[in-house]
Amino acid sequence: MTTPKTILVTGGAGYVGSHCVAELLDHGHRVVVFDNLRQGHAAAVPPEAAFVRADLADETALARVFSEWRFDAVFHFAALSVVGDSMRDPHAYLHGNSVTSLNLIRAAVTAGVRKLVFSSTANLFGSPKRIPIDEDEAVDPGSPYGESKFMIERALHWADRCHGLRSACLRYFNAAGAHPNGKLGEDHSPETHLIPLVMDAATGKRPHIEIFGNDYDTRDGTCIRDYIHVCDLADAHLRVLDALEERSVRYNLGNGTGYSVREVISSVERITGRTVPVKVGPRRPGDLPVLIASSERIRRDLGWEPRFPDLDSIIAGAWAWRSAHPHGFRGLAAAAE
């Protein structure tokens, strides 16, 4: 095992962040979670981690946390992250995500931290020329959300050149699944991700799932997307930490296989044993037929491989979490009171 490090995890009470916290703790690291709980859940923070409820917009709170702990690295997940919302309110994303990240970068540099792992997005590539999308694809963000992430990547580039803050930017599409320990899973309000929405339709929490277009040039007419297990993402975040000993890195992350909307629905039906009511609607503007990220470079450089590459195993974990926690973390919080 590598030497234990002290890591600050912003957004560590959120979906991907909390799974990364669990991975860090499993590897013997000390973790401080910094989260405003706007989208995260206090019940997702394990007792082994220190928890600071604060906002990255609060520079005083940031200075305090960096003065109280000496961090070896920062893992940065905290962000507004709903693509559709960013199209309706671009300023909130372009301003909010970038300014809070600049606050964090400056605080890290001031405190002498020299490593930062950034949860970026494959939405940097809104009009890819090649599928799967590799790191040589031209950046053309598909939304203000993607643009805000690119702005942060550029800020990190200059933080490295000017201050020696090495960074790893990980670009991926759809995190999915749940931790095998049964304590962590996906719980958004409102929920916008396809897999939990399909499961809601299977359980009757939603009247149906709507397919936005079934006439695309794909194997079944519905859009194909890349789903990557959240624990595989956490594993990648830890692996790049060692790479930062030498240089800053940028990696795209995908599970290597894309799945259509119809295939997701069929998998949920197989795993749950329930029928999913389906309604077919018109295409959504801007939806591309296929979006899959390549992970060949991180596989080659760091030996990363998905541990949960197939759709059924991803959905089985998500269903186990939903079945055990029908009210999500809210149910856990209520049980603790």
Automatic annotation (TrEMBL):
Coiled-coil ranges (or none): none
EC annotation from Swiss-Prot or TrEMBL: 5.1.3.2
NAD listed as a keyword: yes
GO biological process: galactose catabolic process via UDP-galactose, Leloir pathway
Any one GO molecular-function label of the UniProt entry: UDP-glucose 4-epimerase activity
Primary gene name: galE
InterPro entries: Epimerase_deHydtase (IPR001509), NAD(P)-bd_dom_sf (IPR036291), UDP_G4E (IPR005886)
Keywords per UniProt: Carbohydrate metabolism, Isomerase, NAD, Plasmid
Matching CDD domains: UDP_G4E_1_SDR_e
Top-rank taxon, per record: Bacteria
Protein name as it appears in the record: UDP-glucose 4-epimerase
